[in-house]
Design goal:
By secondary structure, this protein is α/β, with parallel strands linked by helices. Among the domains are: about 145-195, Oligo-1,6-glucosidase, domain 2, CATH 3.90.400.10; about 505-580, Immunoglobulin-like. Helices cover about 30% and strands about 15% of the residues. It has 19 helices and 21 strands. The strands form five sheets. The protein has an eight-stranded parallel β-sheet. Strands 14-15-16-21-18 form a five-stranded antiparallel β-sheet. Strand 7 (about 185) and strand 8 form a beta hairpin. The two termini are about 25 Å apart. Bound molecules: alpha-D-glucopyranose. Alpha-D-glucopyranose binds near residues 95, 235, 355 and 356. The site of alpha-D-glucopyranose has 9 residues, from loops.
Length: about 575
């Protein structure tokens, strides 16, 4: 009996191989997962809250902790597992809080420490982890450390920063990401230049100094003791510097990370941080930036390295930072390449948007009223069915869109204003520049959350710090809550599906029909569970022929009411996204 079964199986296998042989050649980028190391930070979806824009409880026009507390049930209803909240510390807010003046104090705009604790407890009671944004590549120039460092070269805090003594002449050129004048600024009181990778008001901290490092670990312990579950290390790939400050060749800044990032010592500091904070407090850490390629990224996150658990790189978002459409082939290639490189070891985050980019649907989908809903659903389906921890930026669960800001007067973001000045100085075509800024500026992602169709979208009873997108009557939580086919309810279904099907977290990934111009097709497989993911990235209907189609068993999720499968051919409607279980 057994022998007959084996024989039948063999014959069937040979027949299938003969039948599908040619089609099998279309499969590419095979990757496998060996053993499962289950972790909450791999399985959950992370939801990013920009606190200033989420919900205002006191009518001052700025989002705050009590506003977030009011919306805890909403946040829980999303089915997400963790929150990453942008900085809310004491700050002059030159870079909206990425310039910290006191790492243990809350900016009064957001509330008090008691409010923070209540909010944290609210998350914990709902089983939601909390990830704190730690901005320690640089501080604010209003931080006590910098204020004192300026007073004298003999002050112990002088060594907390990077200085070039003015008697040595001009410092070697360093590029600054936010300052067209360059990365050094002069302080008369100590006759030295200080280094700043970002704005003038964001002096870089000296990670080469063990005392500084130990201060940072104490800050992290302070928050870990309050109960936060993880840290996001802002701009951390730039933390270590070559303090001999060699001259860099002209034009080097085009390859910014290579020259300014990922120095070998960075790994020593991360090892130290791991031993001091990450391991003993059982918290997790994710770095913004993953260096220049796979090797750097592996060095940061592979378990044996004892550095970080997760990193995120910018290859995905980089491809859509200008209004020119990205190519789907490029999109597939980038995701498949990174997946393959991390199929055996290491773990990455998956994201398509955050507070530093314009809105997901504008960049990767189709924001027109006709396709906004389906294309956002398609993108959210994609994010939540890939390997890697999905990061969802607040508002993308609704399909919030870019805001139209055609003139520079309305811009408040230091980065946008810096780019504008630099374009002016270079004599660029400013009409074209403004078009690009309007499309790509990170201000697009910072408009207030759209809760309902009352004035200011229910975000505040006062004057919002930033104009609410005028489409709030068409895109808001209240409207979408009641619509089973909304972007919001689709997002909830996806987070639930990811929880129920471990294959979506840990399964191997295989790209199918790499060359298909409209459809992104791939499989996820874990043990006996096989899922076929089909995403139409086009505003036209399209179809694909796949052997897997013939063995479809069940539809797991679909952003339309029907599917069209005939034999091995599947037709998809514009931006249709379907997950099928198959044999
Ligand atoms: C990171 C943050 C960004 C900030 C910059 C400087 O890139 O995500 O918002 O402006 O660091 O801290």
């Amino acid at each position: 009996m057994i022998k007959r079964n084996v024989l039948a199986h063999l014959i069937l296998t040979v027949l299938l191989l003969l039948f599908f042989g040619c089609k099998e050649q279309q499969k590419e980028e095979v990757s496998t997962s060996s053993g499962i190391d289950r972790q909450w930070w791999k399985e959950g979806t992370l939801y990013q809250i920009y606190p200033q824009s989420f919900k205002d409880s006191n009518g001052d026009g700025f989002g705050d902790f009590r506003g977030i507390i009011e919306e805890l049930d909403y946040i829980e209803s999303l089915g997400i597992s963790a929150i990453w909240m942008n900085p809310f510390f004491k700050s002059p807010l030159v870079d909206n809080g990425y310039d910290v003046a006191d790492y243990r104090a809350i900016h009064p705009r957001y509330g008090t420490m008691e409010d923070f604790e209540e909010m944290l407890k609210g998350f914990q009671d709902r089983g939601i982890k909390f990830v704190l944004d730690v901005v320690v590549n640089h501080s604010s120039d209003e931080h006590e450390w910098f204020q004192k460092a300026k007073t004298s070269r003999d002050h112990k805090y002088y060594k907390y920063f990077h200085w070039w003594p003015a008697e040595k002449g001009d410092p070697p050129h360093r590029h600054s990401l936010f300052d067209t004048e360059g990365g050094w600024d002069y302080v008369a009181s100590n006759n030295s230049y200080y280094l700043h990778t970002f704005a003038e008001a964001q002096p870089d901290l000296n990670w080469e100094n063990p005392e500084l490092r130990s201060e940072v670990y104490d800050i992290m312990k302070f928050w870990a003791e309050k109960g936060v579950n993880g840290f996001r290390l802002d701009a951390f790939q730039f933390a270590s510097k070559d303090t001999t400050y060699p001259e860099f060749p002209e034009g080097h800044e085009k390859d910014f990370i290579k020259w300014y990032g990922m120095r070998p010592e960075l790994h020593d500091y991360l090892n130290e941080m791991y031993t001091e904070v990450i391991e003993p407090y059982n918290v997790f850490a994710v770095a913004e930036g993953a260096g220049s390629g796979f090797e750097d990224a592996h060095d940061l996150v592979d378990a044996n390295r004892k550095e970080l658990q997760v990193a995120y790189h910018f290859d995905y978002v980089g491809m859509s930072s200008t209004p020119e459409r990205y190519e789907l082939s490029q999109f597939k290639e980038v995701f498949s390449r990174w997946d393959k490189a991390f199929s055996e070891n290491g773990w990455l985050a998956i994201f398509l948007s955050n507070h530093d980019n314009s809105r997901l649907v504008n960049r990767f989908g189709n924001p027109s009223p006709e396709f906004r809903t389906v294309s956002t659903q398609m993108l959210n389906t994609f994010l939540l069915s890939m390997r890697g921890t999905p990061y969802t930026y607040f508002g993308d669960e609704l399909g919030m869109t870019n805001i139209d800001m055609p003139t520079i007067e309305e811009y408040v973001d230091i980065s946008a204003i810096g780019e504008y000045k630099s374009a002016l100085a270079q004599g660029k075509d400013m009409v074209e520049f403004m078009e690009r800024l309007n499309y790509g500026s990170r201000e697009n992602a910072r408009t207030p959350m759209q809760w309902n169709d009352t004035e200011n979208a229910g975000f505040t009873e006062g004057k919002p710090w930033k104009r609410v997108n005028s489409n709030y009557k068409q895109i808001n939580v209240a409207l979408q809550n009641n619509d089973p086919n909304s972007v919001l309810n689709h997002f909830r279904k996806m987070t639930q599906l990811r929880k129920e099907h471990l294959v979506l977290v840990y399964g191997t990934y295989q790209l199918l029909q790499k060359e298909h111009p409209e459809i992104y097709a791939f499989t996820r497989m874990l043990d006996q569970e096989k899922v076929l993911v089909l995403l139409n990235f086009s505003s036209e209907a399209s179809s694909i022929t796949l052997p897997e189609a013939a063995s479809i068993q069940e539809t797991l999720i679909n952003n339309y009411n029907s599917t069209n499968v005939k034999g091995d051919s599947i037709s998809l409607l514009p931006y249709q996204a379907v997950l099928f279980k198959f044999n």
